[in-house]
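Model it.
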Amino acid sequence: MQVQVGPLRLLVVQPTPFCNLDCDYCYLPSRDDRSRLPLEILDAALERVLESPFLDGGFTLLWHAGEPLTMPIAFYDAASERIRLALERHDLPPQTIVQSLQTNAVVIDDAWCDCFERNGIHMGVSMDGPAFLHDAHRRTRTGLPTHGAVMRGIAALQRRAIPFQVICVLTADALDQADALYDFFTGAGITDVGFNMEETEGENLRSTLERPDGERRYSAFLERFWQRMRAEPGRLRLREFDGITSLACGEARMESTDMNTPFAIVNVDAKGNFSSFDPELLAVATAEYGDFIFGNVLQGSLEAALSTEKFQRVCREIKAGVDLCRRDCAYFGLCGGGAGSNKYWEHGRFDCSVTEHCRYRIQLVADVVLSGMERELGLSA
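Modeled.
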């Protein structure tokens, strides 16, 4: 089977599966597990990546898949030193690896900000907008709201001028709240936002977006958000709008994504198990495929996984799904064939095409953005 492999652009490392929140739409099955990543496994993961043929320039190391800040500050200081030493061993410049971290932000204070600054860690914050939306889904393990704590964490980042992007999960109850979300983000001085849809995935067996009127309401939501942003240019960036407009205004079209290109992403859990493709595949087990673990960084190279039966099957089926999207979908150039995890969780297989996720994440967004651009250019009938 001939397929493009790499180059590696993202190494997702799970410092712990544990999370201090109990968000009702979370896909992770092991967020009660308090296991911690030994630094020896981090060393091995770095070695496997840096020795691999998939390395071609720099990449991001993302701390994710659990709540990273339930680990102590000392862990990230020690991990950053291990990263520095690994790059020295391979005679690579420091900028080869950029650290990033996705957090719920509830414990961020000045000491954490010191850690982020001295280790050059880029920040992403998971939060769902104003309190009445956020606290409906993102609560502590004892059921307490978390919005106030998140805003204190964000305020600490802002005081220190540490850039961050907010990832906001949209559930059905958010779709009538475009103005409330826009006003909240701009009022809070949050300038960089991405919308994730509530997905049918892993432990979250049903999305609230699976309603007959979901697509209509989401399109109306996007239309209103587009209007508000165009009325105040430069005040807020939205990842979804930026992605479509950059492709629409440029010559390039997507032929694939990191999510469906083997070893463009490597995912390593706290025990050293590794996978590729979507990070969401690493932590789950299924009746059809078993798990999606392709090896362990303590036991062999990344390249050795290419010849295993499990990898070959998953890769072959993901490629068949991408080929089907390329053949049948008018939006293919805007998404490159989608994400295998969404295809699996929605259809029970990888070798298929349109998902609810791609309808919300790409197709409906594209319809709104392209219509808006045509109106502004005077091209509408």
